[in-house]
Amino acid sequence: MARTLITAPSSARRGEAVTLRVLLQHPMESGFRVGADGGLLPRDIVRRFSCSWNGERVIAVELFPAIAANPYLEFSALALDGGTLDFVWEGDHGFQHREQRSISVA
Amino acid sequence: MKAWALALLALVGLAAMAQPLPDGRRSGFEFMGESTQAMQRDDALNPGMLWVLEGESAWSQPVGAEGRSCAGCHGDARRSMRGVAARYPAFDAALQRPVDLRQRIAGCRQKLQPQAIAPGDEPLGLALEAFVAFQSRGLPMAPPADPRLAPARERGRQLFQQRLGQLDLACSDCHEAMAGRRLGGSPIPQAHPTGYPIYRLEWQGLGSLKRRLRACLSGVRAEPFAWGAPQWIELELYLAWRARGMLLESPAVRP
Known about the structure:
The structure holds two protein chains of two kinds. Chain A is mostly beta strands. Chain A has strands spanning about 5, 10, 15-25, 45-55, 55-60, 70-80, 85-90, 95-105. Chain A has a single domain (about 5-105), classed as Immunoglobulins (Immunoglobulin-like), CATH 2.60.40.10. Chain A starts with a strand and ends with a strand. The relative contact order of chain A is 0.32. Chain B contains ten helices and eight strands. Chain B has helices at about 35-40, 50-60, 70-75, 75-80, 100-110, 125-135, 150-160, 170-175, 210-220, 230-240; strands at about 5, 90, 95-100, 180-185, 185, 200, 205, 255. In chain B, the strands form three sheets. Chain B has a three-stranded mixed sheet. In chain B, strand 4 and strand 5 form a beta hairpin.
């Protein structure tokens, strides 16, 4: 099971830019490394990450084999309405992981 | 209205976690680059915290026929496990030999749950060790003055100074005589085990002190001891004593 560390405020002032930070536990196996048996280890990476705020896309990221294991991303978004933050990671072999956080805006 | 985003890179600068001691002993933290230091200081950035979280859920997860969890006996780890990691390796009265933190946890789980933890760096043992060690972060290393540990610690000291492998190098040849200088492009630290288990960038994962010592042994082209060999604990005992009073950083980040 994938683990995540998400740093997001639970409340914000309207119009404030909030910083969102996400860290996902994932091996990001590049597909170029050789295993103990001499064969290539099959690629297993996270390919897409996206974050939406009340269903509206805030950021969409493509990830590639050269990115290190346990990818960390930091971005910011303008707090306009309170609601739900939706974080989604998708990757090879049907990997999908979703996390949600609620945020209130005053 | 539109929510919009701006990807940005920011490093949070907090006060340094480790300070050099007046006797010149310095944590490996001080030999690292600024960006790696920033990664360790910030828990939202430190990937070692993922294992700490995993250990936290394993701590309260009931296992075995009787459904026992670590929390069932030890309660809140933030209180019960505070300072524990700083005292290990310690003498195990039942086994009549010194054990490190991982062996202590594995022994406890084996006896009471029962659930076997495989030797070597397997995920459950690492996660629990990281979680327990995390409770002692910021506390000084306090190796026990138990006289039963003295012979093993002395053997550890001898091992530290014994030349090994095809390169015929002792630990002390690099980590004492050459500490602060460079091997290839990398600074040679003083080999204080203050941050284990560590998230090592080279490993892209968390690893134990034993794994680090194995890497050093194969580095001097010596054959590493077997996983359960007493030599590891003897070295760990000596290293812990050498680093007494230095602050624990678990889970540390190292290059």
